[in-house]
Write a structure and sequence with these properties.
By secondary structure, the protein is α+β, with helices and mostly antiparallel strands. Helix content is 67%, strand content 9%. It contains 21 helices and eight strands. The strands form three sheets. A four-stranded antiparallel β-sheet has the order 1-2-3-8, with no helix packed on it. It has a two-stranded antiparallel sheet with strand order 4-5. A two-stranded antiparallel sheet has the order 6-7.
């Protein structure tokens, strides 16, 4: 759980990190740069899987994931110590990127070790149930990161949090890692690995036996393209893109943490339920059903989320609205900008605020690439009823996640033999989640931004009437391909690990 906390706290604070470690002037570009850095941590996960997977098959599961824990915790703590872009310039994003890569490498080695360790301790009729607890840790890690951020925010004013308070969740990581290290140090090695080692049956070259053997490599490819690739995009759509969509597209930045936390709390027990169910009815069809329902319903769900808070569907109390124009000092340029603020109040309690900032230079509008530098920030505070509606739609998406993710650890472990299990299952898992899933927030946000720009350029002749839904094509297409391959080629009948 701690590794997931460390990894996802970066994504949870992406909006603030964008303003701290990247050049100012274009908020969207800075946010996309942050998402790209966030994604970089995912891209290197397969390399971590190869390196630490090989280590785990050579020297054991226990010691390998103790190393990954320390690597992850150290990198997270140091991200919270990096000076801002204003202080050290381009070294800031460079250092963030390097530490983010270290986090990705550590996470790449962690999951395979945890899954094989628990599976090799579990009886066959409870393997889905026991390993499903591991599957809750990613979601719980995200949940804990949101809790820590919320507590930190409430313990200080907004200005202090945006100035330095956002670093606190990164520093807290060090305490969690110390506790986890002590627990892991007292754990015993996996009985199956210990037995194989005592009998001299461990692999001397796990990489060659995993990927150089055609028979085993076929299963690696099937695991990736028939299961994990689709699971990855469903996971990141339900938990990360949903959060990004609420914050960036719907403009609900103050309540997004609360919405996500409630949805996560209600949905998390279903990881264990579907893990338990997979011990009784098999794992393949639970995962395939979750994938299919998800890709068929995404556009409907996100349209519902958009419309439930859409001001066009509400009645404005015009007399309560305000509109101001003022000159505000820009501390970064020592000049002044024109700032126009418009607030609106609606009969159901919703309030909206639009702040349009026009950058000035020597009294004239500042230009960049031939265009005036204008930044508009729209935020919204919704009523309790609308908030619970969003909780429900996010809960539904996480429920799909629990169907595809709850049984998959046991499913992957059972596909490969003990001596190369750590290596063989780690690579497809981290390509599926790290590459196909981890890139989802950046790709989906880019698709939405491109559609919106195309609409702005086309004026009334819009190219996409629902530009805010364009980002969903990525998980729908990737998930659809994975579903077809999984249905046609996955067997799903092997439930042994003693091979």
């Amino acid at each position: 759980m701690i590794e997931w906390y460390d990894f996802y706290i970066f994504g949870s604070l992406a909006t603030i990190i964008a303003t701290k470690f990247f050049p100012t002037g274009n908020a969207t570009a800075a946010f996309l740069s942050t998402l790209a850095t966030f994604a970089a941590g995912f891209v290197v996960r397969p390399f971590g899987a190869l390196f630490f997977g090989r280590l785990g098959d050579l020297i054991g599961r226990k010691y390998t994931f103790m190393v990954t824990l320390l690597l992850m915790g150290g990198a997270t703590f140091l991200i919270g110590c990096i000076p801002a872009y204003e202080t050290i310039g381009f070294m800031a994003p460079v250092l963030v990127l390097l530490l983010r890569l270290l986090q990705g490498l550590a996470l790449g080695g962690e999951y395979g070790g945890a899954a094989t360790y628990v599976a090799e301790h579990s009886p066959s009729h409870k393997r889905g149930l026991m390993t499903s607890w591991i599957q809750t840790t990613a979601t719980v890690g995200l949940f804990v990161s949101l809790i820590v951020i919320m507590i930190t925010k409430k313990s200080m004013d907004k200005a202090a949090f945006e100035d330095w308070g956002w670093r606190v969740p990164f520093w807290i990581s060090l305490l969690m890692v110390a506790i986890s290290y002590v627990i892991r140090k007292n754990m015993h090695e996996s009985p199956l690995f210990a037995k194989a080692k005592a009998e001299g049956k461990t692999s001397t070259n796990p990489l060659k036996e995993s990927f150089g053997n055609k028979y085993n490599f076929k299963y690696v490819l099937l695991a990736l393209f028939g299961a994990v690739m689709g699971q990855g995009v469903v996971w990141y759509t339900g938990q990360f893109y949903a959060m990004s969509f609420i914050e960036k597209v719907l403009g609900i930045s103050d309540q997004v943490g609360e919405i996500m936390m409630y949805a996560i709390v209600f949905a998390t027990p279903f990881f264990v339920f579907f893990g338990w169910l997979s011990d009784r009815v098999g794992r393949k069809w639970i995962m395939m059903a979750g994938m299919l329902i998800a890709i068929l319903s995404y556009r409907t769900i996100y349209e519902k989320m958009y419309q439930v808070v859409n001001p066009e569907n509400k009645t404005e109390i015009v007399e309560k609205g305000t509109s101001t124009a003022e000159m505000v000092e820009n501390k970064k340029t020592s000049g002044f900008d024109s700032v126009y603020t418009t607030t609106k109040v609606f009969t159901d309690g919703t309030t909206t605020k639009s702040v349009k900032t026009i950058a000035l230079e020597n009294g004239s509008v500042k230009m960049k690439d031939g265009k005036p530098m204008i930044e508009t920030k729209n935020t919204k505070v919704i009523n309790s009823s609308d908030q619970w509606s969003l909780v429900f739609w996010v809960f539904l998406q996480i429920l799909f996640v629990t169907m595809v993710y709850g049984p998959i650890a046991a499913f992957l472990v059972e596909m490969f033999p003990t001596k190369i299990r750590y290596t063989s299952m780690s690579l497809p898992y981290h390509i599926g989640n790290g590459i196909f899933g981890g890139l989802l927030p950046a790709i989906a946000t880019s698709l939405v931004t491109s559609a919106q720009k195309a609409n702005e350029a086309a004026g009334l002749a819009k190219t996409a009437n629902q530009s805010y839904l364009e980002g969903l094509w990525y998980p729908i297409i990737i998930g659809g391909i994975c579903f077809i391959i999984g249905v046609l080629y996955l067997d799903g009948k092997d439930n042994k690990v003693e091979d």
